[in-house]
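From the pipeline queue, job 12 of 40. The input is one protein chain; the requested action is below.

Action: predict structure.
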Amino acid sequence: MYVVLTLVVEEAQEDGGFVGRCKELPITTEGDSLDEVFGNLDEAVFTYLNDIEGAGLRERVFKQQGIEMFEGELALEPFDVVPLGKYFKKSLQEIPQQELVTA
């Protein structure tokens, strides 16, 4: 199973780093490089999804945010980066069901 999330990264205006956010979830992070900001986004999204799953809120949050879970395999690799002008889109985050909640 997987979900499709849109992660947007912009150059920070003040310090020259990058600011990343997930359009579907209340997640924003920063990094000095694209690799760092995408790594921070990856960790923040994974943590957030585990937290809502553990609290029994995934179904409600996904419905409120319009996030759909898909069966099967991805057509693209997880976290394919597609440049869009000065923005970067990172989508198709695979979330295996067995990894949603960790002990």
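Job complete. Helices lie at 34-54, 58-65.
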